[in-house]
Amino acid sequence: MNTKELYQEIILDHGKNPRNLGKTENYNKEAKGHNPLCGDKVHIFLELDENKKIKDISFEGSGCAISMASASILTDLIKGKEENEIKEIVRDFLEMIKTKENLENKSLTEDDITKLMCLSGVKQYPMRVKCATLAWHTLTSAIENKKEEINIEELD
Ligand code: ZN
User: pLDDT tens-digit profile of 70-102?
Assistant: First the structure.
């Protein structure tokens, strides 16, 4: 299996069987986002503890395989991490998906990075970039506790 096939396999797996789907019981932050260009919707629920660490995270949503896989992978790998670590992960991921060749982040394992690199194929397709980044912008909005729904079309 080459890298491209491996990446597609992981996306299909997460797209078909999203992890952390549903509404986590004791969430204290949430945010919604949508991508009108493709019809993707995501609603993120998270429980931050007193140390600003993610105790639990889940999402509800509907949309294309890329948007669902991205939300699934995202929720999977930030569980247990602290708010400042998450901000760096979001920043590094967004940089990679838009411009950079690679992704480096000290709080991610190699396995986590492989999962994120699966989404790197969207780089050539600006419309698809919106699908892949929807959950990430929505997560930032949840952490900042913004009340308004995110419209990804209006963000870069
Ligand atoms: Zn989409």
Answer: 999 999 999 999 999 999 999 999 999 998 999
What residue spans define the domains of the chain? 3-146
Contacts of residue 53, defined as CB under 8 A and 6 or more positions apart, other chains included, come to 80, 81, 82, 83
Ligand 1 centre distance from Cα of residue 38 (Å) = 5
How far apart, in whole angstroms, are the C-alpha atoms of residue 30 and residue 43?
7
CA of 133 to the centre of ligand 1 (A): 10
CATH class, range 3-146: alpha beta
Report pLDDT digits (tens) over 24-60: 999 999 999 999 999 999 999 999 999 999 999 999 9
